[in-house]
Automatic annotation (TrEMBL):
Domain YbaK/aminoacyl-tRNA synthetase-associated: residue ranges: 47-171
Name the record gives this protein: YbaK/EbsC family protein
Organism (species): Saccharothrix xinjiangensis
Domain of life: Bacteria
Amino acid sequence: MCGVWTIAGSLTPVPVLDRLDLVADPVAAALRSLADGSRLAVAEIDPSLADTAEFCAHYGSPLEASANCVVVAGKRGDTVRYAACVVLATTRADVNGVVRRRLDARKASFAPMDDAVSLSGMEYGGITPVGLPADWPVLLSPEVAAAPELVIGSGVRGSKLLVPGAVLAKLPGAEVVEGLAR
């Protein structure tokens, strides 16, 4: 799969296992142990174009083939639980409904940027479901899990991962959640 990416636009994808220097340290560690690691590619990008809309417009990658990963913090009393939500860029995660209930929280919201960065070991704007803390659920919309190819973050703003949705569905802690995306 690594050689043929119809969603790459003007990117030059290379096998990610050959260029682990282009991803965040926790992502590289996870990729080394991932059975499907050879199915992923990475492409170097201009870090100032890491945000999805700018990235897609500049590199010619379709917005509907991009998936965003957001970190959500759910609180109940003094307990805070984190989860990663991965939805297509053309949708939004149902944080206050589906995610809040999944985390058994009274209140759920996007995690503060400093928390998301320090807990994940990744850069803001590049957080990816690959390599997140083992105790975090990785909630995927069915559309993400079913996608033949996606562009996602790499843990840094200077590159993107290209990955089949089926690989994301096999990540540790991954759950396909109906109704996650709106």
